[in-house]
Amino acid sequence: MCVLVGIGVVAFWPNEKEPEYNGKKLSEWIEFCRGGDYSQLQSAQDAVRKIGTNGLPWLVKWMSYDTPKWKTQLLASTSYRLVPAPIKNFLVSPILRAQQARQGFFVLGTIASPAIPDLVRMTDRWPGESARGALDALRVLDAEPDALSALVAIATNRSKPAGIRQLAMYAVATLHFVEKYESWVVPAVLPCLDEEPMAESTVRALASFKIPPDIGVPVLTKAAASKSAEVRVWAVVALGRYGSQATPAIPALLHAIHDSDPRVQQEAVDALKAIAPEVLTNGVKGL
Fold it and tell me: What are the structural domains, with CATH classification, of the chain?
């Protein structure tokens, strides 16, 4: 009871005023962005952008929340139904706000670039939920070179946990504007292909880049012989995208047709169809 009373006092203690636009708070507009109909969605997104950088301290604060173990256990317990509704709202509010923060960064896009240093620091809280949210926010800022630099730095930093490095590399693989910066991104991530925990996420990233064939084909040919089936699949897929420029990889792809993983077998056939279809019927001597 004392704990509930204490929570209640904190719940209703006056807080710093949240930024508003047209009489609604930032959190209210974001909630419309998450669940409103189309007409509400457009006006809500416009409102969030009008609040702009004034909302960044709030988004960062909300996203910084990591649900403590005791709360997770309480929310999952049968005793939670006995908790008064106002206290329930207070307990769940930070979790919902963290979700709202992710949506807020998505809506703001590049407007949120001043928050990049805060987001980078937040990734050090891995494996907390806030670190995952920060990575998602950095990925949304894909048009910003600083966001890409941050993701590459996290992905290639061997002193960081493998989990967050992998997620950062997956994020790099999905960025829309990475082609502008491949001249420095590719050399930075290539060494990660030799790290077993990073090989799969790295080959996925490399498969999404347009690497010159004189660099990409040898690297991906080597990856096609990896111990990991996932790495082999993505390496073979990437080789197929080079078309006739990947002819040096033909022996490796012919070997991959007999791979132990059926996915690798099929992708190898498809790759050879794109590179040199005659090889499938005539063999290497038919080239």
Answer: 213-287 (1.25.10.10)
What is the pLDDT at residue 283? Answer: 57
Overall pTM > 0.70: yes
pLDDT in tens, 71-104: 999 999 998 999 999 999 999 999 999 999 999 9
Secondary structure of the chain in HEC code, one letter for each residue: CHHHHHHHHHHCCCCCCCCEECCEEHHHHHHHHHHCCHHHHHHHHHHHHHHHHHHHHHHHHHHCCCCCHHHHHHHHCHHHHHCCHHHHHHHHHHHHHHHHHHHHHHHHHHHHHHHHHHHHHHHHHCCCHHHHHHHHHHHHCCCCHHHHHHHHHHHHCCCCCHHHHHHHHHHHHHCCCHHHHHHHHHHHHHHHHHCHHHHHHHHHHHHHCCCCHHHHHHHHHHHCCCCCHHHHHHHHHHHHCCHHHHHHHHHHHHHHCCCCCHHHHHHHHHHHHHHCCCHHHHCHHHC
